């Protein structure tokens, strides 16, 4: 059975990041399995309107106001007309939202549920519980997830976190991890410097990625081991700290700061190293360490969040997120590389079998089929679910849901369904067949 | 005997009814016409079902190499809303004359003129004329038969395309001409937007006139 799926998120290309590439690769694999996928996101600068990516993946760039780091302004009801128009013209069966930080996604799920369309949500990051922004975000998430058909998390730690934040029933949360395109990360032992041991760090240089820890351990490692070099790729507010540290300890020839590197060039940076270092303080599922292991590096990482679930024990060395423990782990890794106790180049074949986008798409498709079998909920049951969100919030959410239903009825009268033209589907099968015949795949 | 005759008659009747139905099923009914100058009306299937006033599509073949695709508005020139506004404005005018307010009467006169200006910009017809070896002409006809037209040379035409665009609360299909050397494309039907069936027909015909053997590369969307 072929489904029509709509992926909604604020974050898509041309913005670069984990959520964006997850959306793109998952959509491509679902199209190859025979479904129809469209993506709805907000406009990036001049890029407004409808665009086609390869294999007929349609992207709608809707003009919305952006408030902070590519997240759009949460207007409650102004998104409804255009979203309803898109859902009807494309005959959407399932709406799949990504990333809790994106208000477009949460609103999209809410409006889709008002229209009776099945909805699904994927969470890509961990959140705290204590500070003000977390409390607000968690309440909004509780509102949206009160009435959702299924939730997907990227690791078991993330599942526990999401279930607690949104008070969900754990049986309707699945764990489907991220994946990596193994062909893009092929190891190349000739590129690494044979006389030295190189440690690679590829991440955004922000506080939550543990850059303070990195700044303090680099001088100690450099004094202890004279043959160790560092390559650091990425950009962010903490870059100044790293440069200051480099000036202070005169490590210009041993620490290289590459700045922001586009995703297609990350592989060339990784193959120059022997060890990959990840010092993040919180992480739901670190796709960076999978890419590094795929490229043939030994991984040293802090034991936080969902990181212990990602790689088998012989590919990764753990440390607590504090200075001395990281130094011990790095020493162990350097010894293992120096005396050739492990051959990281062999990791690639194992990772290729463990993580692939075809596998992820198959598991997601199973989730979609299970969602399609559920029955439609009457309005009173929806209001009951919203009412249980809290003593004050429950009543407020009920009001919002009722007004949304009235807006839906108004739209059905003003813009009747018979006036909306249905879009002809892109002939993906013919297109893929021709690609195969021309040996593009 | 009479039964057989009536049966035959019934069969004949059914046949003729079926033929008529078959004619109507074809959405684009073109009649062969020896006189090349008279317009060939193409029956728009949707026009019968619509309760609102949808624009009408007319396909004129002026010559073998010149085809014109016209979208004509079928709504009344002065709608109910316009009559309402005129009544309110005349009422205000009378009030101002009776109370002898000069400034307010000037304001009402300005409102009248504004209303007249907006009404004169309503579009009653939009057409695309395609001439082989010459190019295309996009013509819009406003109220009181005022026309503006834009001609695009054949050498400058990249292609005529159908694309989707996001307007305020809708997503619509539109027809556009890509002009090589310009930074924006020329949208053909701006206000009287035809349905997808008609757009596909215009797309196929105009591209065949401008670039013969064009349809070989299509993936089967037509």
Please render the helix and strand layout as text.
The complex is a heterodimer of chains A (441) and B (222).
Chain A: E1 4-8, H1 18-32, E2 36-42, E3 49-53, E4 57-62, E5 66-68, E6 71-72, H2 80-89, E7 94-98, H3 103-115, E8 118-123, H4 132-144, E9 150-153, H5 156-166, E10 173-175, E11 197-202, H6 211-224, E12 228-233, H7 239-249, E13 255-259, H8 266-270, E14 275-278, H9 287-294, E15 298-302, E16 316-319, H10 323-338, H11 347-354, H12 357-372, H13 379-387, H14 393-414, H15 428-437
Parallel strand pairs in A: 1-2, 1-7, 2-4, 7-8, 8-9, 9-10, 11-12, 11-14, 12-13, 14-15, 15-16
Antiparallel strand pairs in A: 3-4, 5-6
Helix pairs in contact in A: 1-12, 2-3, 6-7, 6-10, 13-14
Chain B: H1 2-25, E1 40-41, H2 45-49, E2 56-63, E3 66-72, H3 80-99, H4 102-120, E4 123-131, E5 135-142, E6 147-153, E7 157-166, E8 171-179, E9 186-187, H5 196-210
Antiparallel strand pairs in B: 1-2, 2-3, 3-4, 4-5, 5-6, 7-8, 8-9
Helix pairs in contact in B: 3-4
Summarize the structure.
Chain A is 41% helix and 17% strand.
Helix content of chain B: 25-40%
What name goes with the CATH superfamily of the largest domain in chain A?
Glycogen Phosphorylase B
Mean pLDDT of chain B, rounded to whole units? 77
Number of strands of chain B: 9
Biggest pleated sheet of chain B = 6 strands, antiparallel
Helix segment tally of chain B: 5
- Considering DSSP H and I runs of 4 or more, what fraction of the residues of chain A is helical? 40-55%
CATH names the topology of the largest domain in chain A as: Rossmann fold
- Overall, the morphology of chain B is elongated
Number of spatially distinct domains of chain A: 2
């Amino acid at each position: 059975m072929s489904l029509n799926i709509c992926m909604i998120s604020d974050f898509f290309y041309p913005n670069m990041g984990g959520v964006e590439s997850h959306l793109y690769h998952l959509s491509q694999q679902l199209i190859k399995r025979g479904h129809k996928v469209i993506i709805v996101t907000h406009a990036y600068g001049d890029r407004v309107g409808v665009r086609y990516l390869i294999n007929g993946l349609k992207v709608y760039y809707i003009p919305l106001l952006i408030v902070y780091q590519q997240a759009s302004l949460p207007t409650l009801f102004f998104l409804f007309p255009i979203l309803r128009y898109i859902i009807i013209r494309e005959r959407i069966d399932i709406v799949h939202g990504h990333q809790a930080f994106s208000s477009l996604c949460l609103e999209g799920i809410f409006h889709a549920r008002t229209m009776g369309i099945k909805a699904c949500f994927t969470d890509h990051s961990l959140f705290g519980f204590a500070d003000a922004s977390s409390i607000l975000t968690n309440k909004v998430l509780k509102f949206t997830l009160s009435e959702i058909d299924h939730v997907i998390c990227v690791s078991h730690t993330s599942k526990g976190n999401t279930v607690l934040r949104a008070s969900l029933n754990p049986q309707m949360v699945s764990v489907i991890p991220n994946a990596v395109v193994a062909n893009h990360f092929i190891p190349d032992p000739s590129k690494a410097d044979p006389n030295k041991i190189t440690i690679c760090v590829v991440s955004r240089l922000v506080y939550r990625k543990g850059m303070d820890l990195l700044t303090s351990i680099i001088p100690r490692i450099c004094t202890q081991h004279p043959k160790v070099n560092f390559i650091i790729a990425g950009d962010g507010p903490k870059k100044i700290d790293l440069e200051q540290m480099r000036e202070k300890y005169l490590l210009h020839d041993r620490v290289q700061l590459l700045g922001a590197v586009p995703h297609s060039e990350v592989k060339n940076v990784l193959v120059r190293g022997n060890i990959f270092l990840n010092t993040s303080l919180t992480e739901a599922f670190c796709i960076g360490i999978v890419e590094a292991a795929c490229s043939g590096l030994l991984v040293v990482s802090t034991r936080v969040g969902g990181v212990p679930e990602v790689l088998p024990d012989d590919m990764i060395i753990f440390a607590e997120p504090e200075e001395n423990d990281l130094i011990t782990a790095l020493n162990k890794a350097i010894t293992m590389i120096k005396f050739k106790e492990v051959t990281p180049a062999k990791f690639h074949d194992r990772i290729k079998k463990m993580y692939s986008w075809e596998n992820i798409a198959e598991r997601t498709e199973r989730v979609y089929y299970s969602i399609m079998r559920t029955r439609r909920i009457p309005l009173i049951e929806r209001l009951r679910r919203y009412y249980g969100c809290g003593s004050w919030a429950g009543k407020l959410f009920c009001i919002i849901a009722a007004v949304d239903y009235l807006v839906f009825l108004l739209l059905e009268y003003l813009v009747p369904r018979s006036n909306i033209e249905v879009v002809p589907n892109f002939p993906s099968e013919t297109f893929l067949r021709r690609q195969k015949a021309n040996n593009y795949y | 005997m009479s039964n057989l005759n009536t049966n035959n008659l019934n069969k004949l009747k059914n046949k003729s009814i079926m033929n008529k139905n078959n004619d109507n099923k074809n959405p684009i009914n073109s009649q062969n016409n020896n006189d090349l100058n008279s317009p060939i009306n193409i029956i728009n299937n949707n026009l019968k079902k619509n309760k609102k006033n949808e624009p009408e599509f007319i396909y004129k073949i002026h010559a073998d190499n010149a085809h014109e695709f016209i979208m004509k508005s079928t709504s009344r020139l002065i709608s109910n809303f316009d009559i309402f506004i005129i009544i309110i404005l005349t009422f205000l005018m009378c009030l101002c004359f009776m109370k002898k307010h000069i400034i307010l009467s000037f304001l009402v006169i300005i409102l009248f003129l504004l209303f007249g200006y907006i009404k004169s910009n309503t579009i009653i017809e939009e057409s695309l004329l395609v001439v082989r070896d010459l190019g295309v002409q996009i013509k819009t006809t406003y109220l009181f038969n005022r026309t503006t037209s834009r001609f695009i040379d054949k050498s400058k035409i990249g292609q005529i395309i159908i694309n989707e665009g996001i307007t305020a609360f809708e997503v619509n299909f539109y027809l556009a001409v890509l002009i090589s050397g310009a930074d924006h494309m020329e949208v053909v039907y701006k206000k009287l937007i035809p349905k997808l069936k008609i757009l596909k027909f215009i797309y196929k015909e105009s591209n065949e006139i401008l670039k013969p053997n064009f349809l070989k590369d299509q993936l089967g969307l037509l």
